[in-house]
Amino acid sequence: MLLRTSRQRGPFPRWDFLFALPLLAACSLAQADATELVTRLCVSCHGEGGNSSAPAIPRLAGQQADHIAKQLEDFISGKRENAAMAPFLAQIQAADITGLATYYAEQTPSGPRPRGNKKAVAAGKRLYEDGNTRTDVPACFGCHQPEGAGNHRYPRLAGQHAAYTLAQMKQFKAGTRSNDKARIMRAVAARMSEAEMVAVSEYLATLP
Ligand code: HEC
Ligand code: HEC
Q: Which residues are CB-neighbours of 201 under 8 A, at least 6 positions away?
């Protein structure tokens, strides 16, 4: 007891911290790697900090890390297909996925948000929050959270390009995107009209 106290008070720091150094070094290395990969392989399409300005290319800034990681795994395994991204994903390793997902999840969403068509935005908000009881479309809100924020289980939808969101809904409905577990989104999209898909996509694009 006496010995310990005198060591703590002594002029030298305790040695335990040395064991933490390799760990810290490894963490910052992983961070640097993710930034390097993003700059070399992703920024040309997904934009600075994941704030893509191209309507067909999803914004990744602030997206849930778990969602990004799952999508990257699905693209790599072929469960989700995208010809544009394939040659770039061929250059990453499975071990890079967590770093890339964390990098994008930590970026701040920014960039202009459209105002959208007033009627469509209002109809989209209603559908998002209440669903359509007549046709059994569930409220998106229940899974994707208030204001499209998402959580560790469900992707963030807020501020996404309307054209991208609409394209995903159509793909779920047609079954050309089929990487949703338990067919959740295919079942939702199957019940939606095209007008509803347009409305909800326009509404989501207006959110910060
Ligand atoms: C040539 C352009 C291009 C490059 C380069 C590119 N992407 Fe993509 N990415 C796309 C497109 C287009 C989509 C949407 C595909 C679709 O419509 O299904 C997409 C989709 C994604 C998604 C799914 C987003 C979601 O919300 O479901 C993730 C995650 C992603 N890209 C990450 C990356 C990462 C990480 C890199 C770099 C290693 C990268 N992309 C490089 C074009 C690109
Ligand atoms: C029961 C839960 C649930 C409900 C209700 C739900 N979703 Fe989803 N949604 C999910 C899950 C889970 C995913 C992720 C699928 C995957 O792994 O690719 C998803 C993915 C999506 C995507 C793709 C995001 C991307 O960038 O890849 C869009 C767009 C979407 N949902 C829109 C909606 C809309 C619009 C509604 C309401 C009409 C809705 N969802 C209702 C669970 C749900």
A: 124, 162, 163, 165, 166, 169
What distance in angstroms lies between residue 44's CA and the mean position of ligand 1's atoms?
Answer: 11
Kindly tell me the sign of the dihedral angle through the C-alpha atoms of 36, 42, 45, 49.
Answer: negative
Number of domains in the chain: 1
In a domain, 180, yes or no: yes
Residues 6+ apart with CB under 8 A from 128: 139, 140, 141, 144, 148, 200, 203, 204
Task: Give a yes or no: residue 9 inside a domain.
Answer: no
* pLDDT tier, 151 (very low <50, low <70, confident <90, very high otherwise): very high
Q: How far is the CA of 122 from the centre of ligand 2 (A)?
A: 20
Structure tokens at 176: 């050309």
Task: Say if 107 falls within a structural domain.
Answer: no
Among residues 140, 136, 118, the alpha carbon closest in space to that of 127 is found at 140
Beta partners for 132?
A: 137
44 Cβ below 6 A of ligand 1: yes
* Nearest Cα residue to 178 out of 73, 80, 68: 80
Q: Is the pLDDT of residue 73 over 70?
A: yes
193: CATH: 1.10.760.10
Helix (H, G, I), strand (E, B) or coil at 180: coil
Q: Are 102 and 37 in contact (CB under 8 A)?
A: no
pTM for the structure as a whole: 0.90
